[in-house]
Amino acid sequence: MDKIIIIGGGLSGLASAYFLQQQGVQSRLLEAAPQVGGNLLSIKENGFLRDAGPNSLMLKGQVVPALMDSLQLQQEIVEANPLAKRRYILNRKRQLVPLGPGVLSSGKLLSLQGRLRLLSEAFRGRGKSSAEESIAGFVRRRLGPEVLTWLVDPFVSGVFAGDPERLAVAATFPRLVKMEQEHGSLFRAALAGRKNPTKPRLVSFHNGLQALPLRMAERLEGLLQCNTPVDLLQQHEDGTWEVFSQQQSWRSEKIILSLPAHKAAALLATLQPTLAAELKAISYPAVTTLSLGFPRSSVAHPLDGFGMLIPRTMGLETLGVLFSSTLFPDRAAPEQVLMTAFIGGSQNPLRGRSDSDLLQTVLHEIRPILGIAGEPSFSRCQNWPEAIPQYELGHLARLERIAKITRQIPGLYFRANWSDGVALGDCMEAAQQLSQKLAH
Question: Could you tell me which residue ranges the Amine oxidase domain spans (predicted)?
Fold first, then answer.
């Protein structure tokens, strides 16, 4: 009998197995796909290196940097270009303006009324923020409607593929709520934070972000089984679990489900229908990433930044564009540039549209913005039907209900981005916490 079986070989499952191994606890990790990593997918093709899912990792705190050392990945790390600090946003005149104090004071993005409303934030008292306040409600209350429209909405739709009217601020941005409660103002909190600044590092790897799960898989050799979709879970009267996959089965004392919420729900539908219903209610919008290569001479914009975001009020479907070959070296063939565009999300459901349609839509929209002439020299689409879990209003209460039910089921644990945070670092930190709990 195994001590622990982990189902799901994405980053959360891999990190859970690896941290358990570091604690001296052997687990069995089952992954349905031919390879590990989930949506961490790096592909070399035609002189381009594209990340079809997440594109970068934030190194901060202690857990993730220490993990890089343990995995001997430090030599593989590539730092983001310093230009990544510059981020562009599309304004009313369809001009790209770099974000920063200058643009906020110049009127290129916010009206005079919007700027005055923003500056008044420091003089507004604490609000009555709650778990049921949306990001949009919080931003309107603290910073004003223009900041929501021109800054926060494009960030939320571009990074989280979400709708700020539906996402809960306490679940998605708990730090903002804490800043308001502790300092009474976001501005005052930001000033206080400057006294003890931390400098997280934005990084990738020489062969793309997939190097991280692949290195973990190497270290878990003998414990990891790919091409092993789990069909059924059973819990016996003695509390032990049995996991069935095709013609095989394994017994285990404990189970960690490191799966998207809807897939975990499918496995638990018969055993725990109430728990399964809670999991199934967590939504995942579809997103398509488009990797686009162009001759450098065909793009007028200098691409001297992280990328650009597009406010939804502009009526365009493209969520944003990452300047991939600026962000990290060796992402494009010589004399070429690589961009990664995003389309879809909860505010723009894709509804089964073809790759060709999405490609033409994105090209039509970004050509005049970036000054692109001609057709791309390289293009690939990657569809993610369930891209990013949405921490919608009521999410924290749902997690509490899930935790309450789970406490009554001996040996069942979850580790996934629908509960631990969608950032890669959050998932790895949560995996370490669970491994320490289960190892003692």
Answer: 11-433
| 207-235 mean pLDDT | 96
Structure tokens at 84: 């990544």
Out of 143, 160, 193, a domain closes at: 193
Domain range spanning residue 34? 2-40+209-282+392-439
Q: Are 122 and 349 in contact (CB under 8 A)?
A: no
Residues written for the chain? 440
CB 292 within 8 A of CB 320: no
Q: Which amino acid makes up residue 214?
A: L
Token pair, residue 403, equals 């935790």
Q: Which residues of 244-269 are buried (b: 16+ CB within 10 A; e: fewer)?
A: ebeeeebebbbbbbbbbbbbbbbbbe
Share of the chain residues as helix, strand and coil, in percent rounded to the nearest 5: 40, 20, 40
CA distances from 65 to 23, 62, 71, 198, 437 (A): 18, 6, 10, 14, 21
> pLDDT tens digit string along 391-420?
999 999 999 999 999 999 999 999 999 999
Contacts of 314 (CB under 8 A, 6+ apart): 90, 94
| Across 112-121, 128-137, 400-409, least confident range | 128-137
Has residue 48 been placed in a domain? no
Predicted confidence at residue 195, as pLDDT, reads 64
Give CA separation, 414 vs 261, 396, 409, in Å.
10, 15, 12
Here the tokens at position 60 are 């901060």
- Is the pTM higher than 0.85? The answer reads yes
| Two tokens, residue 70 | 């343990």
Helix (H, G, I), strand (E, B) or coil at 153: helix
Residue 278 shares a structural domain with residue 407: yes
